[in-house]
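Dock magnesium ion; give full complex structure.
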Amino acid sequence: MPILVMKFGGTSVATLDRIRRATKRVGVEVAKGYDVIVIVSAMSGKTNELVNWVGETSPLYDAREYDAVVSSGENVTAGLMALTLQEMDVPARSWQGWQVPVQTTAAHASARIEAIPTDNLLGKFDEGMRVAVVAGFQGVSSEGRITTLGRGGSDTTAVAFAAAFNAERCDIYTDVDGIYTTDPRIADKARKLDRIAFEEMLELASLGAKVLQTRSVELAMRYKVRLRVLSSFEEQSDEAGTLVCDEEDVMENRPVSGIAYSRDEAKMTLVSVADRPGIAAAIFGPLAEASVNVDMIIQNIADDGRTDMTFSCPTDQVLRAETALNAAKDRGELNFRGLVADTDVAKISAVGIGMRSQSGVAAKMFETLSNEGINIKVIATSEIKISVLVDRKYMELAVQSLHDAFELEKLG
Ligand code: ADP
Ligand code: ASP
Ligand code: MG
């Protein structure tokens, strides 16, 4: 029988009632003749609670134990969903990551899926099971320890299963009815897109649009998975939601397709470092070793052989970054006068494949922000995106004014 992957995010399984509602959607697809692999998230808020418990217990925690704790939310939902399906007389069974097994690297808290053997589940489908409910976000390393895939990782579990089982489609059920030109929660004028290109979604996701985890889009692109995002709260047709697809299949030609933002950015400045060959390596080497994800970097013009080096990283990695840089200083590998962390910034990005062929997008972006009196602190560009760092208090205003300036309400 053809296989369908259906993923339900945290808000879609937040209560027993919602689990029941999600289960009914699964029942509809089973009735159409599909064998279904359901990927579930933890109930809404659960993972945050678990993450906070870990942080309160141990600020510079052991990532193996972090994974042991935060992976547990999904286990509860998987069992409850399987029970609900059984109550509806649908033959179903729950699976934790290690049981499948979802084999991952040992990079705890940000593991990558390496393989998903299909024999176990296919064997059960052959025996009459119609739905396998798999706990998302988790796997097992070759050392036999539980791993997690990074926040939002259930999306990646879903796409990886769709690829491994050659599923007809991977449907991501969430609390919005598709992918919008920007987060509909902060811009009323956001418009739902019928289609979006993989490349654009990849940039939007990596720049903060958490509707899909970045890695899930990468995998869908690589393995040609039909990926769709739709609402778990509305009746659905086969054309509902937003399809993430190849660039050639997106009809419109637009310079900007979406605006993304990331609230969790910090700007760190090393004050007065020596301007000498090897200085960047002396700074960013220890940061990489401490697994700090450095994003934007600027080095100021040197004065008297000294310069300031500024970089951005996620807010929750500031402590790790400070520890790594101070340790390098103590070892005598690096010298700086001060280390200043500004955690009140946000990153705003405009994304669109049309930027490749249309000029003036950056100028329009800077002019729009300037008209609103918003100061730009750092700029970074690539072929299809322009990102700026601004004070966090201007985040919403920046997103809304850019949405207006690029006339995104006319899309969709
Ligand atoms: P789930 O729990 O289902 O995985 P998430 O909270 O991870 O859901 O992702 C859905 C949320 O993503 C939406 O509620 C919305 O606020 C946010 N979001 C951010 N950018 C976008 C966008 N461009 N289109 C749609 N949703 C977006
Ligand atoms: N529950 C995990 C999280 O909140 C994974 C997911 O929902 O995708 O990050
Ligand atoms: Mg999510």
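Observed: Residues 9, 152, 155, 210 surround magnesium ion (ligand 3) (CB under 6 Å).
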